[in-house]
């Protein structure tokens, strides 16, 4: 199905082929999860080029592909591509210009034009990334499994929260719990911050020790079959003061405002504005984070990117994060983030950890 959609989007001219260099896009199209690979898709054949290190793995994973093991000592990648282009009588070649450096492409381009019957070479940008926005049932299942692991891992570490524990110690335990529960790796470097450091939207866990009254901000995710989850929860260690309660309620209201507006065809801009309108009416408007969220899948940050300029429409099968936040320097930050998806039945919230303000 993915190959069919790709051909419909790109191979619109006769005797056309497309070169795919992005590891993420290669995995999406072929299923191959290794490295050192290039795809060439023609009208009739799907080629995956790799070397001896990944040849057996590619044969197992890339179903429907002709897997070629390139002899790196005796044949350049360009020479092999030229051979395949000539076999398929390609006259038009497309390539992912965002995923190969200029020097490499200039050399490859010159040889292809000299040694094949290719008449036109054109760059393509973002086409596969747009296809990746809509998740299949299998892709959605993997994201849900990853989110379930993250939910449970968070529940497992909360009893360990105690005065004196460091950000780093708690983050390591969270990562360990996700691994024990079946995560292939962390979705991204876990963000786990205490007190005033929670104002750093992407702060790195440090040796800062937990104290009574601290905000605890945790942003993390798990991975299943390459697909990622992404969730943020904010807690208070001890009794929350009035300002902490006020800001938490503000962020929660802003998130819910966006969630309530997610229907097929709504733009990312419209969702951002719903949330931003709540924050803009508050005394903390100057401390609101930029943007509202992003798509998530094989990459942590995928299309669409929800913000004031996002005209992309949210459709059924699109998995996005909704994550407004308030970040006040030298005080702290509050962010609440969930992964959600539009289904035939409406909006489904994938991340299930409780969102009411918890005093630990």
Structure write-up:
Its EC number is 3.4.11.9, 3.4.13.9. Pfam families: Creatinase_N (PF01321), Peptidase_M24 (PF00557). It comes from Thalassotalea piscium. GO terms for molecular function: aminopeptidase activity; metalloexopeptidase activity; proline dipeptidase activity. By secondary structure, the chain is α+β, with helices and mostly antiparallel strands. It has 10 helices and 18 strands. The strands form 6 sheets. A 6-stranded mixed β-sheet has the order 4-3-2-1-5-6, with helices on both faces. A hairpin with a 2-residue loop joins strand 17 and strand 18. The chain is elongated, with a radius of gyration of 23 Å. The mean pLDDT is 96.
What can be said about the biggest beta sheet? 6 strands, mixed
Provide a count of the helices.
10
Shape: elongated
Along the chain, the helix and strand elements come as HEHEEHEHEHEHHHEEEEEHHEEEEEEE
CATH class of the largest domain: Alpha Beta
Look at the structure and give the mean pLDDT: 96
Low-confidence stretches: none
CATH superfamily membership of the largest domain, which one? Creatinase/methionine aminopeptidase superfamily
How many separate domains?
2
Proportion of beta-strand residues: 15-25%
N-to-C CA distance: 48 Å
Class derived from helix and strand content: alpha+beta
Radius of gyration: 23 Å
Enzyme class: hydrolase
EC number: 3.4.11.9, 3.4.13.9
Pfam family, one: Creatinase_N
Keywords: Aminopeptidase, Dipeptidase, Hydrolase, Protease
Key features of this structure:
3-stranded antiparallel β-sheet, alpha+beta, Creatine Amidinohydrolase, Chain A, domain 1, Creatine Amidinohydrolase, 10 helices, 2 domains
């Amino acid at each position: 199905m993915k190959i069919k959609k790709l051909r419909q989007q790109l191979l619109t001219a006769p005797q056309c082929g497309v070169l795919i260099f992005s590891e993420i896009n290669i995995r999406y199209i072929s299923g191959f999860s290794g490295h050192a690979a290039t795809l060439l898709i023609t009208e009739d054949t799907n080629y995956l080029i790799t070397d001896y290190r990944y040849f057996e793995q590619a044969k197992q994973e890339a179903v429907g592909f002709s897997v070629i093991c390139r002899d790196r000592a005796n044949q350049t990648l360009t020479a092999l591509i030229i051979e395949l282009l000539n076999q398929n009588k390609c006259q038009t070649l497309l390539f992912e210009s965002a995923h190969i450096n200029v020097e490499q492409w200039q050399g490859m381009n010159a040889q292809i034009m000299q040694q094949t019957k290719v008449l036109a070479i054109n760059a393509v940008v973002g086409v596969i990334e747009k296809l990746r926005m809509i998740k299949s049932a299998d892709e959605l299942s993997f994201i849900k499994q990853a989110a379930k692991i993250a939910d449970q891992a968070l529940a497992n570490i909360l009893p360990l929260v105690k005065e004196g524990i460091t950000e780093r110690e708690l983050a390591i335990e969270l990562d360990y719990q996700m691994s024990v529960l079946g995560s292939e790796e962390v979705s991204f470097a876990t963000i786990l911050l205490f007190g005033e450091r929670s104002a750093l939207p992407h702060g790195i866990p440090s040796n800062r020790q937990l104290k009574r009254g601290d905000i605890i901000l945790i942003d993390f995710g798990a991975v299943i079959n390459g697909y990622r989850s992404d969730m943020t929860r904010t807690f208070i260690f001890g009794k929350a003061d009035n300002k902490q309660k006020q800001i938490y309620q503000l962020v929660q209201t802003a998130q819910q405002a966006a969630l309530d507006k997610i229907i097929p065809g709504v733009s990312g801009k419209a969702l951002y504005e719903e949330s931003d309108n709540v924050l803009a009416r508050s005394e903390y408007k100057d401390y609101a984070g930029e943007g509202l969220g992003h798509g998530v899948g094989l990459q942590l940050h995928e299309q669409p990117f929800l913000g004031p300029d996002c005209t992309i429409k949210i459709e059924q099968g699109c998995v996005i994060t909704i994550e407004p936040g308030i970040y006040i320097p030298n005080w702290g930050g509050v962010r609440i983030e969930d992964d959600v998806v539009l289904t035939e039945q409406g909006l489904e919230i994938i991340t299930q950890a409780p969102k009411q303000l918890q005093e630990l």
